[in-house]
Design brief:
Blueprint: H1 2-9, E1 20-25, E2 29-35, H2 41-45, H3 50-63, E3 69-75
Parallel strand pairs: 2-3
Antiparallel strand pairs: 1-2
Subcellular location: Cytoplasm
Protein name: RNA-binding protein KhpA
Keywords: Cell shape, Cell wall biogenesis/degradation, Chaperone, Cytoplasm, RNA-binding
């Protein structure tokens, strides 16, 4: 799952070396916290959040196979 998120986000941003993904896991949920440089936030979120919504849709669909829920948070 981590590779999928990184593969989607890195081509979108100007500073791919600053893309950081942290994982927090609870009993029922896996939280992925995506951090990008401030200048790249607009590229990752997109107009009216369309790109972020698309990324989340792909990640949630890929995570549907697992017993745990998957959540993606984009932080600055």
């Amino acid at each position: 799952m981590e590779d999928l998120i990184i593969a989607i986000v890195k081509p979108l941003v100007d500073y791919p070396e600053d893309v950081l993904l942290q994982i927090e896991e609870t009993d029922s949920t896996v939280f992925y916290k995506l951090t990008v440089k401030k200048e790249d936030m607009g590229r990752v979120i997109g107009k009216q959040g369309r790109i972020a919504k698309s990324i989340r849709t792909l990640v949630y669909a890929a995570g549907a196979k697992n017993a745990k829920k998957v959540r993606l948070e984009i932080i600055e």
